Give the backbone structure.
Amino acid sequence: MARTRSILADVSAGISELQKNPLAVLQQGHGAPVVILHHDEPAFYAVPAELYEMLLDRLEDVELAELVRRRESQPEIEVKLDDL
């Protein structure tokens, strides 16, 4: 039975198209991800560097927010700067 998968990009390209001109394929997305298809199935997403960096920054923010939520119920420890 064929497996059905969602395509999470507005623009798609085939592997052979990507091999011919990778930057042209990425430019088709106008800054958004491009899904690369292999035999009409999503193989991977090509993401522009700027978007990738933004996603990593946002992921780091989410991870830091979770760390703060976990620690906010911990008791406070008073420290004097002279003791450091």
The beta strands are 11-14, 34-38, 41-46. The radius of gyration is 22 Å. The first strand starts at residue 11 and ends at 14. DSSP finds three helices and three strands in the chain.
